[in-house]
Amino acid sequence: DKVTQVRQALVENRGESIAWGAVYAQCLEDMDKVTAQGNALKIARTLYKEGKALAEGVALQVGDKLTVRLTITADRDMDFVQVKDERAACLEPVEGLSGYRWNQRIGYYQETKDASTIFYLDQMRKGTYTLEYEVYVTSLGRYSQGIPVVQSVYAPEFIGHGSSGSLQVK
């Protein structure tokens, strides 16, 4: 079913100076098959309705107010960390204004975009952190959620992403 393309290229340095390069690979997968992965950084997303965690497959209704909770774990101190949560198309954020926020023991800038909410943290010390924001359910149907991603901006090899999921709105 799936076609794999492999392209080969020869890179050659014909000069006498040092040359640097990089190789990037891209993998495509159905969003609902993506599972959580991470090394020094890990992230998990949980949706709550009226203070109770939503179980997979629970039907929602238009107008429901949900809390999105992102739980982030860092195994070392880091500076300049970005957290991006891709929302399902049926979810509209309650807070539309971007700005600086303070939550628990960290300060961060929260940016609300059309399809995601992004958090920029100046410092993240070793430990576990929770970021939350609220959304309304706006449309009927079945929707795939994107994945939450946490990454060090200065050392992008430190990255983790959560699993995807689906929402059913009746």
| H/E series | EEEEEEEEEEEEEEE
User: Taking Cα atoms only, what radius of gyration do you get, to the nearest Å?
Assistant: 19 Å
> Can you give the helix content as a percent range?
under 10%
Q: How many strands appear in the DSSP assignment? A: 15
Q: What's the pLDDT, averaged over the residues?
A: 91
Q: What is the CA–CA distance across the termini?
A: 33 Å
**Helical/strand content category:** mainly beta
Q: How much of the polypeptide forms β-strand, as a percent range? A: over 45%
Most strands sheet? 7 strands, antiparallel
Spatial strand sequence of the major β-sheet: 1-14-13-6-10-9-8
Task: Point out poorly predicted stretches.
Answer: none
The 3D shape can be described as globular
Count of alpha/pi helices: 0
Kindly list the characteristics that best describe this protein.
170 residues, mainly beta, seven-stranded antiparallel sheet, five-stranded antiparallel sheet, globular
Question: What would your notes on this structure say?
Answer:
By secondary structure, this protein is mainly β. It has no helices and 15 strands. It has strands spanning 37-38, 41-49, 52-53, 59-60, 65-74, 78-86, 91-93, 99-103, 106-112, 116-124, 127-137, 141-145, 148-152, 159-161, 165-169. The strands form three sheets. A seven-stranded antiparallel sheet has the order 1-14-13-6-10-9-8, with no helix packed on it. A five-stranded antiparallel sheet has the order 3-2-5-11-7, with no helix packed on it. Strand 9 (106-112) and strand 10 form a beta hairpin.
